[in-house]
Amino acid sequence: MINNRPINNLKAYSNLENDLRKSILGGKLSCSDPISTETDLSQKYGISRNTARKALQKLVDEGLLSKVHGRGTFIVPPEDRSPELVRLTKILVIIPGGKYDIYDRKMVSGIADYAYSHQCQFDVRMEAATLSQLRSQYENLKFDGIVWERPDAENYPIIEALRDDGVPQITVSRQIEGVASIAFNGESGMREAVKFLRGIGHSEIMFYDLDLPAPIYSLRQKTFVDELGKSLAAPLKNHVFTVKFGTLTDKHIRRAFAACPDTTALIFSSTLNKEFMEYFKSAGIRIPEDLSVIIFGETDEFNMDNRHPYSILIEPRRLIGTNSAEMIKKLKGGGKVPKEQILIQGELMIRQSCSTPMNFGNSRDIPEKTQESQEYAMLSNMAK
Question: CATH number of the domain that 56 lies in?
Fold first, then answer.
């Protein structure tokens, strides 16, 4: 006959450990009063004093409890907990909208690296659960914190409610008051890209970006204008063009070049990659003979691991993932939410798509450009 006592003891041991951890992390017990004694806990859970002592010692090792000789065992206040002693069990990664592109995969790989080295688990969900479900799961220790990958506005109320509940969270490339945030330092990356193009002789540079409300977009557009303006003696013309996601057409691109007919270099968001590649092909634009190009961000087709000729401003998504996981650990240990967004430096990878303007020859005859320039001039005169 199989003896079930060790199994029952293990279950009771886990129940004691989880119940105490849940009460401690949920702030349900006072830090000024000692918790129940080993004798009381062993009687309540039907285990030996030695088993109860082991459960308490595990929480002591995690920095959640502290034994004071002659007084008892006390809960360590959140502000006094050592981040080095905090242990993660599971990180929840939520990627709203059902997307799972190269950005998501690289970020998740960073979290996976962290989880492996810290002996914890992680769970990736393509859709957020309801607020009540997430609350219940957190209270029952199903996860330690949430990494929100570029959450949509509709997720903000859930994030804010969980923030008020004290759930450790961090948002990637989005900012919500009172919630830790991490992002690629797009401003620094943009400055590096413009400085590089200026350094090889370009002064007429265009930037085509997405028209989105997140601050990261307006900041990198402003940085582009400020940095480009340093190289121009004349007043800066409009060199920034934006478009709603999924609405860019060949006509938009032709009008942009017509508005800036002397453009010799182009930086564009990787989300517009398909449309620009089709335009280059249909218009017969040679890269870099007719135009130098830097792609802002990676795509499945053009990234640092693939063989292709395009220069790319690479977002450090893997590093963002590892830093996000580390922040969850710090917050679980009682650390404070950073007041400023955590910015991670990227990398400018230069390949064959960039060249000096003098290599373009005396004439850059981009098809349809002359006609578009005339149309743009006519519209400008009409407006006057």
Answer: 1.10.10.10
Give the sign of the dihedral formed by CA 95, CA 100, CA 104, CA 108: positive
User: Which residue range forms the structural domain that includes residue 165?
Assistant: 85-184+319-342
* All residues at 6 or more sequence positions from 311 whose CB lies less than 8 Å from its CB, including other chains: 293, 294, 295, 348, 349, 350, 351, 353, 354
State the alpha helices, DSSP H only, in 142-210: 156-164, 186-199
CA distances (Å), 15 to each of 45, 52, 168, 365, 369, in order? Answer: 8, 11, 23, 75, 72
Asked whether the whole model's pTM tops 0.90, one would answer: no
Question: Model confidence over 185-237: pLDDT tens digits?
Answer: 999 999 999 999 999 999 899 999 999 988 889 999 999 999 998 866 555 66
Give tens-digit pLDDT for 242-284. 999 999 999 999 999 999 999 999 999 999 999 999 999 999 9
Q: Total domain count for the chain?
A: 3
User: Any bridge partners for residue 65, and if so which?
Assistant: 75
